[in-house]
Each structure stands twice: as C-alpha cells, then as structure tokens.
Amino acid sequence: MNKFTLHLMAVVIAITSIARAEEIAVQGETVHTMAGEPIRNGVVLIRDGKIASVGSSNSVKIPAAARVLKAKVVTPGLIDAHTVVGFSGILNQPQDQEQLEKSAPIQPELRAIDAYNGRDPLVDYVRRFGVTTIHTGHGPGALISGQTMIVKTHPANLEQSIVNPAAMIATTLGSGAVAEKNKAPGNASKAVAMLRAEFIKTQEYVRKGATNDVDKRPARDLHLEALARVLDGKQPLLITVQRHQDILAALRLAAEFKLKVVLDGVADAPLVLSEMKKSGFPVFLHPTMYRASGETENLSLETASKLRKAGIPFALQSGFESYVPKTRVVLFEAAVAAANGLSQQEALAAITIDAARLLGIHERTGSIENGKDADLALYDGDPFEYATHCTTVIVNGVVTDTQPH
Amino acid sequence: MLRFRFALILWLAAFSFGAGVSAQETPLALTGAQLITISGETIEQGVLVVHRGKIVAVGPRGTAIPAGATVRDATGKVIMPGLVDTHSHIGSPAGGDQSAPIQPDTRVLDAIDVRDASIQKAQAGGITTANIMPGSGHLISGQTLYLKLRDGNSIDDLLITNKTGRVAGGLKMANGTNSRKDPPFPGTRAKSAALVREKFVAAQDYRDKIARAKGDVTKLPARDLALETLVEVLDGQRVVHHHTHRHDDILTVLRLQKEFGFRVVLHHVSDAWKVPDEIAAAKVPCSIILLDSPGGKIEARDVDWKSGAALEKAGVNVGFHTDDPVTDSRLFLRSAAFAVRAGMTRAGALRGLTLAGAGMLDLQDHIGSLEAGKDADFVLLSGDPLSVYSHVIETWIDGVKVFDRENEKDRLWATGGYGAGNPRAAHLCCFGTWEEAR
Questions:
Q1: Which tens digits make up the pLDDT trace of B391-418?
Q2: CA-only gyration radius of chain B, Å
Q3: Alpha helices, DSSP H only, in B237-378?
Q4: Cα of A78 vs its chain's centroid, Å
Q5: Looking at chain B, which terminus has fewer C-beta neighbours within 10 angstroms, N or C?
Q6: Per-residue burial over B9-19, b = 16 or more CB atoms within 10 Å of its CB, e = otherwise
C-alpha cells in the first residue's frame, strides 16, 4: 500500500466519522455539568463529536437541523475508575478471561491494548447505564499483573475508542498477591521484598541505559522498561490493597522509590486515614457494595464519605468480580454511596469529573463543558434511583443507545 | 397450623432480661406511619398494634388502641411486613459433600452457625424469615430450613415447627452445569435427569412398600433416610426448591415435576423471560434473583431483570431471593426495585418480597403481610422501600426488635466497618445486658 492510498483512506475515514457524528441538541430539565451548579432547563449542543455549547435554554439556540433529544436529567458520560470489563469476559470461561496471567508473579510488560475485547457484552451492558469511559485492564491477583488502559465504551473500532493505551501498572499487595502453594510470593512480606528487589533492578537498568557508551548499555528489556516508566512517574502504580497493614506497606514502598501511586480498594481505609492523607495519593475506592469477606471483611458503605471528609481525592469503581454477577455497575455503587453519607453531587463527581481528574483525562471528558468530548448520559429521573432508566447514551457525539435501560 | 417453639424462650427471655426483649406483655402501638400491608390497601398514617408477638390491629388513623398500650409515633416512616428471603446461604450452611450427587439425607440443620454475622446483616436488611439452603453443586444437596432470624443461642431458637413437631424446610435440588462434575456426579444434562428419576422411582417404591406393609414391622423396608425425605417430597409435605437457569433446564424441572407430582419452586430461573408461558401453565412459582449484571457463568449469560415482569404478566407467582452471598442481604429491597425498573408492577414486586415468598415456604398464614393474627414480623423504613435513599431503621420478629439502626452494634452490621464480620457474641448470663451481648 503506497503513501497516497494511505492518505486517501485517512481522508475517507475522517469524512465518515464526521458524517456519523451528527449535530445534536440535548435538552435536560436538569443538566449536571459537573463544572458548576446544575442547570435547570439546560441545553447541550453537540457538533463534530464535541460539546459545542452548554447553557440554559434561554442562552443556547438550537439549530433547525439538529437532532433534538430530551431528558429529565442529563449527566456527563459516567467514568468507571477501575474495572476489568473487556478483559474478564461475561462467560467466565478460561477463553474469555484475559485479566490475569499467572506464569510469573511480576509481568509489567503485559500491555492492556493487546487483549482488550471492546465487543464483550459487558462493555455494552455497562454503557447502557450511562458508562462511557472505563479504566480497565489487567486485574488484581498477581504481584504485578500488567498494564491498564482507558477506553471509551463506544462499539466502533478500537483505535477511535482509546483514550490512553497505557494508563497504569496494576499491582496487588496483601493476600491477594499470594501465589499458588510453594511459589513466591507466599505471603505479604515476601511480596514487598520481591517488589523492592525488582525496583532496585530497574534503577540499575535505567542507570546503565543512560550511559553514552552504546556497548555498555544493557539489552532492551520490556519488563524493566515498563517498570522504568513507573520509576520516572510516567505510569502510576495502581496498588490494589485492602488490609490496613498492607496499605501502610504500600506507602512505605512508594516512599522508598518515590513512586506515583493510586491506592485501589483500601477496604481498611478508615483505620489509616491520616497516613493515607499524608501520602497525598488518590484512591480508587472499592465498590461501595463489594462483598465483605476475607481481606475485605471490614469494608463499609460509608468509607466514601469518610474519604471526602478527610479530604482524600477519590473515585468510585466497579472492581473485579470472580463469579456472579460478572461486573458491577459504577452508577449503583455511587448511588449507594449517596445514600450513605455522600451528597448527590459528590457521588456523581466520583464517577465523572473526579474520576476524570484522577485518570488524567479531565481535559477530554468528565464534565459537560465546551470543547470536551460529547459523552453524555440521559435519564428519566434521579440517575441514582433504582427505578429510573438511562434513556440515551452518547459517546464521542454518537448516539449509541436509545432503549430505556 | 404452625406454632412457634420460641414463644416459651421469648417469655423466659423477657422474664430474665427485662423489657428490652419483651414481646409486648404490654401492647405496642405504632402510629402515623405509612402501612404497606401487602394483603390489602396501603394505609397512610395508619396504626399498627402488636401484642405478645402477634399483630393485633392494623388500620387507619383512629383505629382503637388498647388501654395501657405503649404508643410510639412513627410519622413519616414506612412499615411493611418482614421480608422473606426464599433462598439464602447465611449462617454458613452445608449439605451434601463431594461423595455423591444425591444426598437428601443431609440437613442444613446440622451445620448452621446462628451467631454468624451474615444473619445479623440479614436482619439489618429487613429480612425476618429465610429459607437457608445447601449449595447447588448436587442434583439433590440436602434439606433446607425455613428460619426466623431471631437472635438465638442455638438453631432451635430460630426454627419454625408445626404441630406434629416437624421442622419447616424444603429440599434443595439443582440442574444445569453446577452439578455436572467427574463421576460419581453426572457428566451431562440427560444423565442428571436420569439419576434424579431413578431416585424418585426408588422413593415411590419405598413409599408403596411402606403402604403395603400396613404397619407390619416384618414387612416394612429398612429405614432409609434419603428415601424417607423423598417420600415427604412425593407426599407434598416438603417443597422442592430447584436451582435452574437455562430455558431447557427449566423445562426439565417441569417435566420431572409432572412425572412425580412434587411441589416445586423454581429458583434463579435466569431464562424465565424466554419461557414464562410454560412456567405459568405448570402453575409453578418462581423465586428470581436480580443481579447487577449477567454472566459469571455460562448459564447466567442471559439473566435479565425483565423476568419479573414477564412472569408476572404470564400469571406466575413471583418471589425474590438474595442467594446471599451472591447478593447482599442488606440490599434485598434492591431486587424488587430492579424488577420494577424492568416493568414489574410495584404491588407485585412488594408482594414478591413478602407474601409471595411466604407462600413458597407454606408460611402465608403466619407471615408476609400486616394482618391481625399474623406474627408481628415487620420492618420500619425511613421512606419508600424501593428508593436507594431509604434505610431500614428497625426490624421486628415475633414482636421483638432484632435490629435497631440507632444501636451502635446493629448499625455496624448495617453499614459495615471494622468488626462487622465478627460473629454475634454469646449471651453470657450475669456479665452484661442482653443488648450488650448482641
């Protein structure tokens, strides 16, 4: 294929994309922009896949040609701060489980982009509740299971959906990291020792790689290269950790290697709030309604409100489910947080703008503001109420769903 | 008519530990709350009177309150019957082991831990009666128990016993993939059905031999605990609670039910929305589960909240279950709310949480609605039971308050937090109050 053909194809693709991203006006009795107070009788104008304008019906003129959609409540497309949807498939059979590879305990070189299945039915399923962006990838269950990615839940081609192909590196500490019998790590202490050794090795690799003498540079190592991105802060370490002592171990590790960390899960957070606050690390809190057993036996429906009061930035997630149901829906996790101490706006922020900020995608999505991606969810009532329906979903300016769900 | 063995214990408890656990030697009247009676109209600002463990009056404002009654203002609150969970695994129950696929002789009765935190959490969710089941990894995994979730010291304190002394409970059966394993378990669906039929034929034979013996000890077959249980099933005394997901598996249950004439409740019924008319024609009730998402196993791929509406429309009696720990007992009300989201009527969904479930356990004459003469099992809610923002404030069983959100320990079970997984402490005489021991 020559250069000209490639260019031509690019132009054709661009034209089709624009044609599909029609001009849309969304009228909402309440529009939660998440960039200020909710707007009563608001209008969101969408052009070329972006938000062209937002304001009250008095201030935004609806073009005659625009497709008009109406809803009681409009929110930004929801963001699931951490999931395994698209990796841990609906059937839960070996052939559709891509979130965990157990041949070695530390595999940061496993890229999410090489395994994501954007057509798994669960991607559609969560989108129909208004979830337009997911941070997904390798899951908990190994010391370092691999990388994560951020992707839109748009059913179109993968390249158009990807927001960040290499977002974080997924780590697990505590009993969740423990390998099978007689394999390392066999306990929490060994897990930390192995990570420390690995980061020291990476420091060495980086140091040697920086030399001017090409012959003295070490051979390229995908494994250490990935960890080097953690050491220089390009990819945060996403540490799934539940018990208080393991949370402190994570903070100790982060301090030693000056890591940029996101604390994930943290069922015991209320026991170590001040230490967590001091670290400055944000939190992807366990699903509000996560099952309380084993490492998570102390989790509480009220932890989100405790994080809020402590001033610790957090977002909500659907997490990983090993059995039935195969995934949670982050909308309902926020709803239950709103019924247990968070205000409605705080709970909504935890699955929109706050999640966007913590994922570093707030320039593109997470709120309804001019110039941002047109990711919207429309509801026929309070989005958190069980009996409300999500009536329309828009991803990148494309109406993906119109059946009330 | 069933009578509850716990009455005496309650009386003793009241005697020993004071008014805190009294089942109203003095009548208690709750006034001003919305009363969702289930069996009749919802009453705004009604009056509910309970006395000696029973409901004695339900009516509108102005309903006569007995002289000397304690009157509590519950204005702004909602009262509904205690929730009935038709399928739960709280209290870490167990039935059959891995030695055989058919073990009707095993009893949950012999395995349950009444102090398990899961029972306290179920109270916090407003559940007052639960069918505690062994697992679904067998064709027949054992005998289930219908329990009142009282704060008991032993399993006996939670049992429901009828006048013949029989403990209320059913039989757990399953088909589909969970019970398909290496031998001696079946390898296919057809083999599963064949094994079950074979066992029921043996039970028919056993029953007939007993009948033919006409009491002659020399002619009676040797006592067989497994067949004895299946004879109770054949006689309709013991209801089959049948785990089943896929549409063809559902129809297999109906086929076996027709052949052997047992009484059955279909559980989970993931594909119910594909075969509602067939289920309706068999006049078999369904206890459905409403999950956050489909999948997690092949046969739950198509599970859908719309089953509630589809079954209701077809005329099927619909109840709900938590399958705790699959869904959380504290959030049982969500199940009904999701059914409504997908088209079920509100009245049908509320009935499904209470009276419909009671009927599936043959307890409809005692629990499941707010009616004079029924057990004083009820839930006090802060608002609409189907709203995410509502909380269970109090749960009452037989006129005894078993959960109080104002109580610090109870609240821990409701919200979770450090120590919420710990079992309920044993009550030790003379070392503290009953309240502290809880």
A1: 999 999 999 999 999 999 999 999 999 9
A2: 22
A3: 247-260, 276-281, 307-314, 332-341, 346-353, 355-360
A4: 10
A5: N
A6: bbeebbeebee
Contact criterion met (CB below 8 Å) for A247 and A279: no
Distant-in-sequence, close-in-space partners of B374: CB < 8 Å, separation ≥ 6: B54, B55, B365, B366, B367, B368
Residues in chain B with CB shorter than 8 Å from the CB of A302 are: 415-417
Distance from A125 to chain B by nearest Cα, in Å?
8
Q: Which two tokens stand for residue A9?
A: 């194809």
B169-199: b or e for each residue (b if 16 or more CB lie within 10 Å)?
bbbbbbbbbbbbeeeebbeebeebbebbeeb
For residue B18, what pLDDT is reported? 34
Query: Which residues, in sequence order, are CB contacts of B314 under 8 Å at separation 6+?
Result: B276, B277, B279, B280
ipTM for this prediction: 0.93
Of A122, A289, A300, the CB nearest to B417: A300
DSSP state of B364: T
Backbone torsions φ then ψ of A324, nearest 5 degrees: -90, 130
Spatial distance between the Cα atoms of A309 and B89, rounded to a whole number of angstroms: 36
pLDDT single digits (tens) A312-349: 999 999 999 999 999 999 999 999 999 999 999 999 99
CA distance B95 to B105: 9
Instruction: Please answer yes or no on whether A328 and B293 come within 8 Å at the CB atom.
Output: yes
Are the beta carbons of A386 and B340 separated by less than 8 Å? Answer: yes
B213's tokens: 């013996």
For chain A, the C-alpha Rg in angstroms (whole number) is 22
Helix or strand (DSSP H, E) at A398: strand A398-401
pTM, rounded to two decimals: 0.93
Quick one: tokens of A56?
Answer: 């009250």
Torsion angle of C-alpha atoms B221, B225, B226, B229, degrees rounded to 10 = 100
DSSP letters for A20-87: HS--EEEEEEEE--SSSSPEEEEEEEEETTEEEEEEETTT-PPPTTSEEEEEEEEEEPEEESSB-TTT
Burial of A278 (0-12, 13-18, 19+ CB in 10 A): exposed
Residue A94: closest C-alpha in chain B? B297
Residues of A in contact with B305 (CB under 8 A): none
Tens of pLDDT, residue by residue over B244-288, are 999 999 999 999 999 999 999 999 999 999 999 999 999 999 999
Alpha carbon dihedral B161, B394, B292, B417, in 10-degree steps, equals -110
Phi, psi values for residue B340, rounded to 5°? -65, -40
Residues A262 and A283: beta-carbon distance below 8 Å: yes
CB atoms within 10 A of CB B41: 10
Half-sphere exposure (Cβ direction) of B279: Cα atoms closer than 13 Å? 35
Which residues of chain B are within 8 Å of residue A336 when distances are taken between CB atoms? 331, 388
Cα separation, B239 vs B244, in Å, equals: 15
Q: Are the Cβ atoms of A301 and B419 closer than 8 angstroms? A: no
3-state secondary structure at position B319 = strand
- Assigned token pair, A279: 């670290």
Residue of B nearest to A300 (CA): B416
DSSP assignment of B386-428 equals: T-TT--EEEEEETTEEEEETTSHHHHHHHHB-TTTTSPPPPP-
Q: Which residue of B has its CA nearest to A330?
A: B292
Q: What is the DSSP letter of B329?
A: G
* Å between B344 CA and nearest CA of chain A: 10
Q: Indicate left, alpha or beta for A302 from its phi (over 0: left) and psi (-120 to 50: alpha).
A: alpha
- The whole-angstrom separation of Cα A153 and Cα A163 is 11
A126 touches chain B (CB under 8 A): yes
Tokens of A77: 């497309």
Q: How far apart, in Å, do the first and last CA atoms of chain B sit?
A: 31
